Amino acid sequence: MIKVFDLTKAYGDRIAVDRVNFSIEAGKIIGFLGPNGAGKTTTMRMLTGFIPSTDGKIHIGDYDLDTHPLEAKKLIGYLPENVPLYTDMTVLEYLGFMAEIRQVKKNRNACMETLEKVQLENRANSLIGSLSKGMRQRVGLVQAILHNPPVLILDEPTVGLDPAQISEIRKLIQSLGEQHTILLSTHILPEVQQVCDRVLIINKGKLVAEDTPEQLQKQLHGNLCVKVQIANLNQELISTVEQLPGVLSARETAPNWLEITLQADTEIRPHIIRELVQNGAEILEFKHSVMDLEQIFLELTREELPAETN
Ligand SMILES: Nc1ncnc2c1ncn2[C@@H]1O[C@H](COP(=O)(O)OP(=O)(O)OP(=O)(O)O)[C@@H](O)[C@H]1O
Q1: More confident of the two residues 194 and 53
Q2: Where are the alpha helices (DSSP H) in 177-234?
């Protein structure tokens, strides 16, 4: 449904999105993850035709966004990070207004039906200014689905909402996912695990992973992860472990907990324990750790330490 080839965006000298390739099948909910400034919003803006790309191609359905922008854009509904809402309009007035701008024919009944999809039909005559943030976000969603597009692009739809509102919007996204292909950017990792079929992870403008959350777990573990609780954990011990052959990384992830990522093809755990004890470590616990999505995300987007300079 969405195909992206070598998509690139430069703002002057700064490359915000760097030769990104992915494709999204119809009927899936895809999570788009990345740290701040990774390029999520820029990618989404290019997909929606909101800003032009510097290079690369975007196909939405059967249409190339460059050569058939109107046809391609009709297939997309977009919920931007900050939806411009008119607080002195009622929900229904706003929908009528958006329908007019988009040149979608919507009578009152059709607008009410769309409102039902986001459970806002009871607030049709409320002023947008009087609605809670969660309800306003639903108004944002309603303007995105107004022309019944097969693709929805949602930029951080739960940001700034309280936990109850987050849960409501999440359920709504899941129900919209039954009829739409959805690309959803978020910072909330449990959201991805609960809602998304697949995950794209972007870091510094480059796509660093694309898979199901489960496959990402397997793919990285490929590498093995162990956690060691050490009463007297210090930088010297961490450096000792880091330098052992077969150790990919060693980090203090919680007070007194050392997390070590190992190559899976060699068994060096006894060697690690020996080295730690010989270097005075007081080991309290040693356990195998299964990476959750948060750890995978951190692993893939971790800042590489600059090479030491003398
Ligand atoms: N209009 C612009 N002009 C110049 N640089 C920009 C512009 N918009 C974004 N950038 C830069 O491009 C990079 C990617 O930004 P983008 O907003 O796409 O990231 P993001 O992943 O959506 O981040 P966040 O999660 O913080 O919204 C950042 O370094 C940002 O500073």
Answers
A1: 53
A2: 189-195, 213-220
Q: 222-289 belongs to which CATH class?
A: alpha beta
> If you ran DSSP here, which 8-state letter would residue 148 be given?
-
- Retrieve residue 130's tokens: 């009087």
Report which protein residue has its CA nearest ligand 1's atom 31: 37
Write down the pTM of the prediction: 0.76
Instruction: Report the half-sphere exposure of 44 (CA within 13 A, side-chain side).
Output: 29
Q: Assess contact for 108 and 116: CB atoms under 8 A.
A: no
Matching residue, tokens 């359905």 = 61
Nearest to 183 by CA among 47, 50, 293, 42: 47
What ipTM was estimated for this complex? Answer: 0.95
Confidence of residue 18 (pLDDT cuts 50, 70, 90): very high
User: pLDDT tens, 204-220?
Assistant: 999 988 888 777 766 65
Centre of ligand 1 to C-alpha 20, Å, is 15
Q: List, by residue range, all CATH 3.30.70.100 domains of the chain.
A: 222-289
C-alpha of residue 112 to centroid of ligand 1, in Å: 36
- The boundaries of every CATH 3.40.50.300 domain in the chain are 2-212
The number of beta carbons lying within 10 Å of the beta carbon of residue 269 is 16
**pLDDT, tens digit, 9 for 90 and up, residues 103-147:** 777 777 888 888 888 888 899 999 999 998 888 988 999 999 988
Angle in degrees, CA 59, 63, 64, rounded to 5 = 55
Q: Ligand 1 pocket, 38 CB below 6 A? A: yes
CATH number of 2-212: 3.40.50.300
